Amino acid sequence: MANPASTPDGRPTMYTTSWCGFCRRLKAQLAREGIYLREVDIERDPEAAEFVMRVNGGNQTVPTLLFPDGTVMTNPPAKKVKQHLESLAASGK
Fold first, then answer.
1. How far apart are the first and last CA of the chain?
2. Which is it for the CA torsion 18, 1, 51, 3, positive or negative?
3. Which of 4, 14, 30, 72 is the most buried (most CB within 10 A)?
4. For residue range 29-75, what is the model confidence (pLDDT) as tens digits?
5. pTM confidence score
6. CATH T-level assignment (fold) for domain 13-91
């Protein structure tokens, strides 16, 4: 994964697992706000699992969100995600 922050459409990437209730809840909350994510299941993508462990002190903690500017949030509230995306839009990133 050379540059995990780059997505063709600029959406954040959410690293998740199929069984993660926190992931499902955050995804639903963001969808209600009109925020859609690129999802990557770390159990199906070893490079994604390595990235998640690297940014979470060796732990496979999900949801982990990667934003187009390269910032990362682990298990954030939807409000914080929305605020960060708004700040990125305002700064033109």
1. 21
2. negative
3. 14
4. 999 999 999 999 999 999 999 999 999 999 999 999 999 999 999 99
5. 0.87
6. Glutaredoxin (3.40.30)
Sequence-ordered alpha helix ranges (H) in the chain:
21-32, 46-55, 78-91
2 or 89: which carries more pLDDT confidence?
89
Contact indicator for 84, 73 with CB cutoff of 8 Å: yes
What are the tokens at 8?
Answer: 């063709």
Per-residue b or e along 31-70, where b marks 16 or more CB atoms closer than 10 Å to that residue's CB: eeeebebeebebeeeeebbebbeebbeeeebbbbbbbbee
Q: Which residue has the tokens 């995990």?
A: 4
Across the chain, how many H-helices and E-strands are there?
A: 3, 4
Residue with token string 């069984």: 19
